[in-house]
Structures are given as C-alpha cells and as structure tokens.
Amino acid sequence: MTQTVKFYQTGTLTVGNRLLDSDKRTVQASRNRSNALTCGHRACQGCGEALGARYAIDAAMRAANRDLVCVNATGCLEVFTTPYPETSWQVAWLHSLFGNAAAVASGVAAAMRVKGKATRVIAQGGDGGTTDIGFGCLSGMFERNDDVLYICYDNEAYMNTGVQRSSATPPAARTATTPAVGAAPGNVFGTGKNLPRIAMAHGIPYVATATVADLHDLEAKVTRAMGLHGARYIHILVPCPLGWGAASHDTIRLSRLAVESGLFPLFEAEHGEVTATTPIRRRVPVAEYLKPQKRFAHLFRPDAPGAQEALDRLQAMADANIRRFNLLSAEEAVR
Amino acid sequence: MLKQIEGSRAMAEAIALCRPEVICAYPITPQTHIVEGLGELVRDGHLTGCEFINVESEFAALSVAIGASAAGARSYTATASQGLLFMMEAVYNASGLGLPIVMTLGNRAIGAPINIWNDHSDAMSVRDAGWIMLFAETNQEAVDLHIQAFRLAEELSCPVMVNVDGFILTHAVERVDVPDQARVDAYLPPFDPVQVLDPAEPLSMGAMVGPDAFMEVRYLAHHKQMRALERIPELAAEFRAVFGRESGGLVRPYRIDGADTVVVAMGSVMGTVKDTVDALRDAGHAVGALNLCAFRPFPLDDVREALLGARRVVVLEKALAVGMGGILASHVRMALRGFGNRVYTLIAGLGGRPITGDSLADFLRKVEREPHYDVHFLDLKSDVVEAEIARMERTRRAGPIAENVLRRVGAGRAS
User: Which residues of B touch A106 (CB under 8 A)?
Assistant: First the structure.
C-alpha cells in the first residue's frame, strides 16, 4: 500500500511519526526501543554523535532481536559513555583501543561463528578512529568480508582530544592543528579521504551514508545493513557543537544543510555499486551550511584573504557530489 | 607419540590439541611455520571448531584475539620481534582487560639494523606488559609449555606468552613427544571465562578508569602474577602426573650443589650451558647452572634460594638494556639484594651470534681469577668496535654505523 503523505514537520521535509502507520514509525518512537545508549552519559549538549549512536544501535538492536555485541573505538563516544564505574550502554559492549575496533569486532564475530551463535556484531568509532588510526584494521575487516557492521560517526575532527584535524576534516575548516591564520586559513584543500567510496572499492555487501537529521533514513539504512551478512559500513555525519563552533540547537539543522548543500551526499551502495541516492529537494548554497559554524568564520570576514576562492572551491566540491550521485530531484531541477 | 619433527610443527600440533577456537595469523620470521602448521591442521580437518583468520598486521592479530577472547573463545596467536612491537598497544590491552590469550613469541632481535636471528630483545621489551612469560629450553618443553599455558592463562584470566628461541627451536628438527588428545583433554578443561560479552547479560568491558581506581586495577594485575608464582609449579607437577615428564615450573637448577659459580640463563642456550658446566666440573671447577622457565612472574624467592650458596653468579642474557647493561642480571641482583654474591652480566648471542661452549668456559674460568666487573659482551669483536669509535671521532659525517661495521667485518674476513 502506498500512502501519500503531504504533512511534513514544519520546515523539515520530514514526516511526523503520528502521520504514519505504526509499522512505519521510527524505532525511536517505539516504547519498546532498547535505549542501548541510555541517559546519564557525559556528552555535550547537542552532541550529534550521541544521537547518531543511539539511533543506530537502537535500530540495530531491534533488527538483531537484541542479540548484539558492540565494539567501540577510543574517542568521545567511548569516553562520555563509560566513565568508570558507570556505563550508559544497555548492550554488551567492549572498548579495546583507538585503532583496532574493526579487528576486535572481527574477533567477536569469529567467536560467535565458532560457537554457533547468531549474535550480531557492530564496531563503531569516530572519524579519527575510522579514517586515520583504525584504517588498517578497517580495511582488513572489509577485505576479509568479516560479518561486522562498522559505523563511523563522523564529526570531522579529533574532538575528544580538543578538535585536531583528521583526514575527514573538510577543507578550510579551522581546527586546533589547522588554525585560521595565514594566507590559506584552516585545513588545506586537496587532502582527506572519502571513506564511504573507499569502503565501496572493497566491494563489500553494503555501504551507506546517513545523518542525524533524517531519522527514518538512518534507521532504514541500519536495518538494511543488519539484514545482510558480511562486512558492511555506514558513515553517519554527526555535527559537533564544540568542535564546529555551532549552537547546540543547530545540530539537526546543520546535518540537513550538509545534505542539501551537496557537501554530504546520501547514498547506498552494494558490492561496490551505488544502488540508491537521496535527492536534494531544496538545494542551498554551501555558504548557508558553512556560515553558522565558527570553524568556517574566516570565510565570511570582509576582506579575508582567499575567502571567496575557498568558498568557490567548497561550492565546486558540492557541485561535483551532486553531479556524481545525480542528487537533484526533478522538483529541484525545474526550479 | 615420539616424532622426529620440526619444533614449529610440534608446537602447532600441541596447540591444536589444546582446541583453540580462534587463531589469528600474520607472518613474521621465525614464527611462520607455527601458524602455517596450524592453518594446515584446520584446513585438513584435524582441528575442528576453530576459526583460522589471516589478518593484515600483528596489531590486528592480537586485536582479533582480544575480541574473540572477550566473546568467550579460546584464542591464540604467534609473533616475533618487530611484530611484537607493532602489536605493543594491544599487548598491554590484552593483559589490562584480563583476557587469557596464549601467544607464542619466536624470539628474535629487534632492528635497526634489521636482523631475523635469535635473541631475547623482543621478549624483554614487553616484560612489564602484564603477561605471564615462560621460556622453553627445548622443543619438548615448548610443546609442553603451550599446554600448560592455556591452563594457566584461563585459570588466572591473564594472557601467557610462550617464548621459544627463533630458529634454534622453531626450525630445529628433533625428537619430540607430541601428546595424545585424551591426555591433553584430561589436563586442560574447556575454557570457562570469568568475563564474557553476552547479549543476554550485557556488560561494558574496557571502561575508562580514573585516578580513583586505576592503582587498584594495576595492583590486582600484580596480584594475579603473584598467584601465578604459586600456580606455575603446581601446574607443572600436575603436568608430570598426567604426561609423565618434567616441564615448566619456575626455575630448574643443574649441578648447583656446592657450586661456587652458577650460570643463570633462559631458553635454549641452557643446552650449551649444561654441556659447559659438565666439562668444567670434569676439570675440577665448582660450576653449576640455573634455568629460569618463568620470567614473569619473576620467581625472586626461588632464584635467591638457588643462588645463595654461590660466590659468583654469571647471568648469561640475550638482551641488552642499552645505556644500562643487563636486564635479567638486574632481576637476579634484586633477588640477591642484601647478600654478598658477585653478579656478573654476560651479554651474549645478540642478533643470533653463536654462544659457544668454549667462549663461555673461558669466561667462567676468568671470573674465578679476576676481580669483579659488571658487564661483559661475550665474543664482542673489540677491534671492530674500537676502530669504528675512532673513525667516528675523526669524521663528522661518519655515515651509517651498521654498514660501516659490516664493511669492516667483511674486510677483516677477506684479509
């Protein structure tokens, strides 16, 4: 049955749960949600990572019938959830090191397989633990096609240690190690890794990107990933109010603007081929996404050297994403 | 069953008899034949109920073992030298988490200069990592120690490293009694973890621990090792009861009664040491030897008791604390603190330099006559070293030391 729903939540293009059939409502809307990451943790106000992890793991818990183990890389998520002797995790959870979450998860999966258990395994970490220090172990896990879903919560820098640049930090962004000074302020252009595409190059069964702005989409992708076996990867953009210099109440808005500007394309891929993309329904210039973030403030100062050129280059990156993934919806294309 | 067999293959068969459930393999000389053997035993169906995982690095090898062990599977890996250093962070993590992983270390030198031959630099680099560290004297003992290691590790929930001298043991073909499955099963019960990742009873492992509790956690790791001091001899005795031979334990004295000079050493060099002791005893010298099978925990009391009667203690060690001298020797001095024994540090066999009976006997005769001095390097090519020191003093751009020494050694050989 197809239901045509036109009542979006104000200004969001997101359908409110109450307008949907109960089976189409989000996991978060359910009283039976597992609260895998429960209250009392030490995340900052407006933390995108805390939202992303809660959404993702609750959806995975539902998909796995709660038969799930999570392995966590060192980082904000690990630190703010488990200050000894407290823990916010209501799921079997293991933290080993910064750079080995994928390998540890491979070991957990191997143990479950050899013991004949159906227990599912998730590894999770931030962008530093995924794209930099944990990259070797992640690539090894992908290559072996181990039965692990790896989720990267990408807040685009090393936030736990005080906002240093990672290989997921966007060009021009100010971090503690790419200060907004000199002739080319902020992070340099032409560097960094696109991990979702690198994951695709491994030919693994499933790769997807998501944001905390679209809960339905995020949960659907986690559920889809949990329905498959082998190595799977989901890359979730999670704004960091502290590191991005953004208001706590803007976490969801910034996630949405990242998508609508084209800077963070939403797609799914299977075995190395893109299978679905989320069209942009209300395209915005990149400036609209960048301007509320203090890490890009130097791009909007009058007479700032190179600011316009940097903005143009960021816009070009967004345009290239839109072309690559064909992100303009018919609706947007005619406007 | 008695077999004429390569040490690595014998160890692989013994490890397979221990029914490991997850084995992680990454190749590094001289450990390769052990994991190759295990891979074959899994593939040909001898070892069932086991996941054999080819990983992309030693760091991943131990990390996979950490995950598997935390999920309740008996887990094994092997490494050596640079590989051990590459997994160093995980080495500390495995013991910090209290995971009973067993790992073979095919002892090998650490570069630079790169060197694939045997010494104990790798083991000594992790001596404070919280692992129980056992050293095998022979391939028979290497086989037996692995069986004891799984039992010890799982009883105490502490990882155990079985050290076997690279090439000297790993690649030596000799007679080894590989036990039968029934006896190993009688000795080694199934793994019953003290902590396990179980979705039915979810717990958090690896939490952040601050100043309020970290000391206590470390103290309990130390306590575990002190418990091992008691359990290692007991498990060796049980092993003797089941398998009918002596293997393992903390220390093993050799002709120590009435010895004025006692040589202390670990690992396969004990063969040369014992032969030298025999020859010197025949020549009227009061010499004995003490083999350390357990280095962590370090059996201070047993070492003291064994050495108290000796006027001279020569600690023969295959590692060097650069800038200080002996490592094992410092431990022996700790055991003998407050007593008057003279302790000699004899650095030998670095990077696979042969330790010959003649050189050792010369040194032992010398210490009977000469005044005490601390560090001695056995069979060091003093002329090469002195010439290189002089050259470096003459020239600022002296170039790479290793290559210069090689040239000098080669030139010496040619002339």
Answer: 53, 55, 60, 63-64, 67
**Amino acid at position B198, single letter:** D
Q: Are B114 and B155 found together in one domain?
A: yes
Per residue in B98-138, pLDDT tens?
999 999 999 999 999 999 999 999 999 999 999 999 999 99
Reduced to 3 states (helix: H, G, I; strand: E, B; else coil), residue A31 is: coil
Q: What is the CATH number of the domain that holds B63?
A: 3.40.50.970
Q: How many domains does chain B have?
A: 3
Position B221, amino acid:
A
- My answer on whether B325 and B195 are in the same domain is no
For range A55-74, the mean pLDDT: 98
- Least Cα distance to B93 among B187, B188, B221 occurs for B221
Q: Which residues constitute the domain of residue A59?
A: 35-334
Contact B205 A93 (CB under 8 A): yes
| Residue pLDDT, tens place only, B292-332 | 999 999 999 999 999 999 999 999 999 999 999 999 999 99
Do the chains contact at A84 and B208, CB–CB below 8 Å? yes
What is the edge-to-edge ordering of all strands in the sheet holding B22-25? Answer: B51-54, B22-25, B75-79, B102-107, B160-165, B132-135, B294-296
B67 touches chain A (CB under 8 A): yes
Integer CA distances (angstroms), B94 to A96, B153, B161, in order: 8, 12, 12
Instruction: Give this prediction's pTM.
Output: 0.96
Chain A contact set for B66 (CB, 8 A) = 96, 100, 104, 107
Task: Pick B93's closest partner by Cβ from A90, A97, A137.
Answer: A97
Both B149 and B215 in a single domain? yes
Same structural domain, B101 and B29: yes
- Angstrom distance (rounded) from CA A68 to CA A122: 8
> CA torsion sign, B104 to B108 to B110 to B115?
negative
Residues listed for chain B: 415
Q: What is the 3-state secondary structure (H, E, C) of B349-360?
A: CHHHCCCCHHHH
Judge whether B59 is closer than 8 Å to chain A, CB to CB.
yes
Q: Are residues B360 and B259 in the same domain?
A: yes
Nearest CA to CA, how far is B210 from chain A (Å)?
7
Q: Count up the domains in chain A and report the number.
A: 1
User: In this structure, which amino acid lies at residue B121?
Assistant: S
B56, B66, B205 member nearest A107 (Cβ): B66
Nearest Cα to A41, choosing from A71, A72, A80?
A80
Computed over its alpha carbons, how large is the radius of gyration of chain A? 19
Per-residue confidence (pLDDT) for residue A21, from 0 to 100: 83
CATH classification of the domain holding A107: 3.40.50.970
A29 in a structural domain: no
Q: Which residue of A has its CA nearest to B209?
A: A84
Mean pLDDT of all residues belonging to chain B: 96
- Pick from A68, A97, A140: CB nearest B55: A140
3-state secondary structure of B230: helix
Environment class of B173 (CB within 10 Å of its CB; exposed 0-12, middle 13-18, buried 19+)? middle
Pairing of strands B160-165, B132-135: parallel
**Domain coverage including residue B320:** 251-377
Answer yes or no: do B354 and B226 share one domain: no
The token duo for A311 is 């903005």
Residue of B346, B296, B339 lying closest to B319 (CA atoms) = B346
Selecting from A69, A114, A144 the residue whose C-beta is nearest the C-beta of B21 gives A114
Residues in chain A: 335
Compute the distance between CA of residue A276 and CA of residue A267 in angstroms, rounded to an integer. 5
Q: Which amino acid is at A184?
A: A
